[in-house]
């Protein structure tokens, strides 16, 4: 059901400089200070396009992009399919994730072909739409997963990446990036044919996908595009769901500025649903949670400072059935659903609007940051979570539902600047 095809990728030429100085992490995890550091390394760094600043940021991004194309800083490939691999370290092991960069036909979520799993924010979509209007380009890939029943696609992808990569470098975080380009029509068609009966599950890039649909609709409404034009497609990185290198990190919750916050009262309220145990030593938090994760139990650590922390262990899923009767078992069973429903909402009074506005809630994927900022009194409480499983992401998306924001953090992020997609 998913329609994919090759992409006439826009890439940096040798005139631009070394590729490791031209790429950057995703725009939404880069501070203004880091942005300036990337530009200082090389004035052609893609961050000038992906995260523009100034009085006319979007117009300036469009002007810079067109100038770089005219000057040969950027060049356009013939139609190709790209194999992209990241090699990285996670949980003390060296791992690799490999997928294909291609164009995917945009489909409304209601068709059940491309499936989301998280809620989005309108402000982020407005920003990305303004950038697309000014540049007519995708500068980064949406990260999606697919199920390869019969193991048809993996051998083809491995064949295309059997030789030396066209490009290889390590970024500042130590992640090694490799890229192979394939412009052979028969090989592109063979892989594209595998996706005729497949669905795609968005792992990262929900805002960009919805923005791509809004951009396509905008062009059609303005009479600037018709069906079949390049804006009907968006650039994606497609990774097999069974890939051994898929890593999802948890995103921890930090509580701040709640009037009359009382840890003992919180434990008393949460005790209606959880068995609560006291433990000493913050270094034991992650090993303890991991042990319950392997058992399939719903467990969280609650930390309010000092050396002691509380383990919250859910007694029964029956309470989630009562609170979320119209939701699927997959959504009810998520750790973030349990924490949000039974602790944040029921025990602390932080409702969904509050969470969306982040009035009393902050997110971090760093365990060390969560502990340190609670210890120094910046936050009243930290909830440490286990990661969401890839199968849970699939099941929630397949049920047509969406997880709470910040439910997943796929690691490593796809680097920006290797391949870009011109939409005209």
SSE layout:
Elements: E1 4-5, E2 10-12, H1 32-41, H2 47-50, H3 57-71, E3 74-76, E4 81-90, E5 93-105, E6 114-115, H4 122-135, E7 137-138, E8 142-146, H5 153-160, E9 167-170, E10 176-182, H6 185-194, E11 200-204, H7 206-221, E12 233-240, E13 247-249, E14 252-255, H8 263-270, E15 274-280, H9 285-295, E16 299-303, E17 308-314, H10 318-323, H11 329-332, H12 335-345, H13 352-357, E18 361-364, H14 367-375, E19 381-384, H15 390-398, E20 409-411, E21 421-422
Parallel strand pairs: 6-11, 8-12
Antiparallel strand pairs: 1-5, 2-3, 4-5, 4-10, 5-12, 7-21, 8-11, 9-10, 13-20, 14-18, 14-19, 15-17, 16-17, 16-19
Helix pairs in contact: 3-4, 4-7
Task: Give an overview in words.
By secondary structure, this protein is α+β, with helices and mostly antiparallel strands. 33% of the residues lie in helices and 24% in strands. It is built from 15 helices and 21 strands. The chain has helices at 32-41, 47-50, 57-71, 122-135, 153-160, 185-194, 206-221, 263-270, 285-295, 318-323, 329-332, 335-345, 352-357, 367-375, 390-398, and strands at 4-5, 10-12, 74-76, 81-90, 93-105, 114-115, 137-138, 142-146, 167-170, 176-182, 200-204, 233-240, 247-249, 252-255, 274-280, 299-303, 308-314, 361-364, 381-384, 409-411, 421-422. The strands form five sheets. Strands 1, 4, 5, 6, 8, 9, 10, 11 and 12 form a nine-stranded mixed β-sheet that branches. A hairpin with a 4-residue loop joins β16 (299-303) and β17. α3 runs parallel beside α4 and α4 crosses α7 (206-221). The two termini are 24 Å apart. 40% of the residues are buried. The mean pLDDT is 94.
